[in-house]
Design brief:
6-stranded antiparallel beta sheet, 11 strands, alpha+beta, 33% helix, single chain, Phosphatase 2c, domain 1, 7 helices, globular
């Protein structure tokens, strides 16, 4: 018999210390069937269009979660999140078309759906999902950045070290609202009680994985850990907006 996981969660966005507007969005929701949905978006585009793109996306995704069937399982969940992402992509595209064909309006998306003892992770762009194993004290990045630099690394054109300082390291290969169609990366894996962290690049570009893990391994409350992550990013320069969603489980047999 699989375990049923209960737990606590927190989410937060922060302006950072450099940007003039906050284009990050974060949310965690639970439904009556015991599923937990985490989502983080990082908008892009001038004149507040990044803010709007991430808000449009997160509103559609969370509304879709609220109305999803209680009886959808693994394969159906893949279809559900793909459909929701396509709806968000279409809505952002329509807005851009109606408002003077706005160039560059879009948003990343990373989402996690916890249902029973399974975890579905979906991403577009370079926002990330990490899993922290409390027993081993280890943290793993579960998503692959959909960026030009990651493409160069994966094809052997540059090294991991080169990628850290590459001038195009922030160029995305994929995002909601940029293209008429959207390609979503989705994985379903066994869930074993790890902490689930979703975040934008404003966190992981300012705080190392080791620092993130050290904060998540403390005995602080979930909301305190999120605040500590934001504070650490700002302490290290706060060069971008910071968006975080965190889930920590308590397993019951």
């Amino acid at each position: 018999m699989s375990k049923i996981y209960h737990g606590t969660y927190a989410y937060k966005t922060d302006l950072g210390r450099v940007r003039q507007k906050n284009e990050d969005q974060a949310m965690v929701l639970m439904n009556s069937s015991g599923e937990t949905f985490l989502v983080v978006c990082d908008g892009m585009g001038g004149a507040k269009k990044g803010e709007l793109a991430s808000k449009l996306a997160i509103d559609i995704l969370t509304d879709s979660f609220r109305h999803k069937s209680k009886h959808i399982f693994s394969y159906g969940n893949r279809l559900w999140i793909t459909k929701a992402a396509k709806e968000a992509n279409a809505k952002i595209n329509r807005y851009a078309e109606k408002n003077g064909k706005i160039k560059g309006m879009g948003t990343t998306m990373v989402a996690a759906l916890l249902y029973g003892s399974k975890l579905m992770i979906a991403n577009i762009g370079d926002s990330r999902c990490y899993l922290l194993d409390h027993d081993k004290g280890t943290i793993r990045q579960m998503t692959e950045d959909q960026t030009y630099v990651r493409y160069l690394v994966s094809t052997g054109k540059i090294t991991e070290e080169d990628a850290l300082s590459h001038p195009d390291r922030h160029v995305l290969m994929n995002a909601l609202g940029i293209y008429p169609s959207v390609s979503l990366s989705v994985d379903v894996l066994p869930y074993k009680g790890e902490s689930i962290l979703l975040c934008t690049d404003g966190l992981y570009n300012s705080v190392s994985e080791e620092q993130i893990a050290n904060i998540l391994l403390t005995d602080d409350r979930c909301d305190q850990k999120v605040s500590s992550l934001v504070a650490e990013a700002n302490h290290n320069g706060g060069s971008d907006n910071i968006g975080i969603a965190l889930w920590e489980s308590i397993a019951n047999d």
